[in-house]
Amino acid sequence: MKLSRPVSWFLTAFGVWSWIVWTTFVKNLWKDASGLAFHHGDHSSPTAYFWIHLTLAVVSTVFGTAIGVLGLRGLRALHRRRTAPAPEA
């Protein structure tokens, strides 16, 4: 399958965006002092809210990474096609 340049860039950008968003989310989840993520603000006793949202962040980051890799592979393939020597007649 061949990906166009705009699609490849979009997939790559999606992968980068996924890492930015979900790592920020996990940092904020870890710093949560409202009692949603940890009982009594104590990091030794995480709540179900914490585990569900951590799982969501991990899965989303894995999918974002896979999508970003597809975009990078598409860009590399386009670059190889563009720089390949012309076939002789």
Automatic annotation (TrEMBL):
Superkingdom of the source species: Bacteria
Q: Which InterPro entries match?
A: SCO4848-like
* Keyword annotations: Membrane, Transmembrane, Transmembrane helix
User: Where are the membrane-spanning stretches?
Assistant: 7-30, 50-72
Question: Which NCBIfam families does this chain map to?
Answer: SCO4848_fam (NF046117)
Task: Spell out the protein name for this chain.
Answer: Integral membrane protein
- Which species is the source of this protein? Actinacidiphila epipremni
